[in-house]
Amino acid sequence: MPADPSGLNRRALLAAPLGLAACERFASVPTSAGPLAPPLKSLAPFPIGATGMTGQLDDPVWVAAMRRHVSQITPEWELKPERILQSGFAYDFSASDRMVDWGHDQGLRVFGHCLVWYSQGLDVFTDALPTARFAAEFDRYVSTVAGRYRGRMVGWDVVNEAVAEDGDGLRDCVYARKLGAEAYIVRAFQQARAADPDAVLFLNDYNLENNPRKGATFLRLAERLLKLGAPIGGIGTQSHLDIEIPAGQIRGFFRDAAALGLPIHVSELDFPMQRDGGRMPDLRSPAEKRAQQVARVGELAEAFMALPARQRFAFTTWGLRDTDSWLVREEGKNRPDESALLLDARGRPNPAYQAVADAFGR
Ligand code: XIL
Q1: Which residues pair with 296 in a beta bridge?
Q2: Angle between helices 351-360 and 286-305 (to 10 degrees)
Q3: Which of 218, 242, 318 maximizes ligand 1 atoms within 8 Å of its Cβ, making it the mutation to test the pocket?
Q4: What CATH class is the domain 66-360?
Q5: How far is residue 323's CA from residue 339's CA, in Å, rounded to a whole number?
C-alpha cells in the first residue's frame, strides 16, 4: 500500500477524543509540521489564484491555506458544462452556486472555467441535433450560465482548448462542425459579452509554451477572432509546463503573446516532475530534475513579471498544495508522489516557490 499522502497518523486519530477525530477527519494535512510558506499573495502585485472544489470546502486545513495564499479562486470542475449541463438541456447549478458563493464569502475574486469546451456537453450537443436547435441551445447555455453570475465573476474562460492538439489549425469538434470553425467561438464570446458585460472574457489553451507551433497558432487565432468581432478581453495560457523544454521557449511565447496587448492569465499552472510512460529511462538524479523544474518555473514567473502591469491579469496554480493537484488524484493522472505545485502537502514551500518569489521581486 502506498504511504498515506495526507501524512495523518491513523492510529493516533483513532485514539483521539471524538471531537478532534471528527475535525481531523476532514483535514487533508496536519498543520503542525514545519514553517508554512509565506503567503503567495504577498509575493505579487497582481492576483494569485488557485483552484477549489466543493469537496474541499469542509476541510479546515485547505480553507486556511486558501485564505492565507490566494486572492482568486477558479472552481476546478463545478462550472464546467459537464457538471452543469444535464440530459434534455436541463441545468444543475447546485455545485457551481456553492463554489461562487463560497468564493465571495471569503472575499476572493472568482474566475469562471469554462463555458465551451470541445470535450464536454457531448451527450446533448450532438451532430444529429438539427442545426437551428443546436445554435439556440448553444446560445442559451452560454448566456444562461454567464448571466446567472453576471457581475460576480472577474472573468470567464469562454472557449477552452480551441486549437488542434498538435497546434496545426483549429480543433475539429461538434461545435465547429455545427456552427463553423471560428464562428462558434465568436458566437460564444458575443453571447457571454451580452450576458455579463463586466467579466473579462478569455480564450484559454494549453501547451502554448511547450509547443511553439501551437503557441503561434493560438495567438494568430486570437487576432483573427478579434477582427471577426469576438470581444476577447484576455488570453489564458494553462501552463501545464513540460519542464524539459529548452530554456528561452517560455520567454519567447510570452514576448509574442504580449504583442497582442491583451491581459494574460497564467490560468492552470503546474509543473510535473514525472512524465507519461513509454520514454527512454531518465538517468538524472531527483536533485537534477528538481533543478530543471525550478529553472523553468522561474523562467515562466520572470516572463509573466516582465509583462506591462496592465497585462498581468492573474497567476493561477491548478491546485494549491501538491496533494490538491489533479495529477495526484485518481480521476486525473493518478500519480500519488507527484510534486508539481508551489507548496508541499503541508503547505511548506517547494523548491519552485523561491524561484517565483525571486522573479516577483519580493
Ligand atoms: C481537470 C481537473 O483538474 C480534473 O479534476 C478533471 O478530472 C479533468 O479536468 N485543462 C483544463 C482543466 O482546462 O479543466 C482540466 O482540469 C485540466 C486540463
Answers
A1: none
A2: 20
A3: 318
A4: alpha beta
A5: 8
24, pLDDT greater than 50: no
Q: Residue 21 — pLDDT band, cuts 50, 70, 90?
A: very low
Identify each DSSP E strand in the chain by its residue range: 48-52, 72-75, 109-117, 155-160, 200-205, 234-237, 264-269, 312-317
Cell of 33: 509540521
Residues in CB range of 34: below 8 A, 6 or more apart? 346, 348
The rounded Å distance from CA 10 to ligand 1 centre is: 30
Q: Where are the domains of the chain?
A: 66-360
**Minimum CA distance residue for ligand 1 atom 16:** 76
Please list the alpha-helical segments (H only) found in 70-120.
81-84, 94-105
pLDDT at 32: 52
Is it the case that residue 13 has pLDDT exceeding 50?
no
Closest CA to 160 of 81, 275, 75: 81
Predicted model pTM = 0.91
Query: Is 268 labeled as catalytic in the residue annotation?
Result: yes
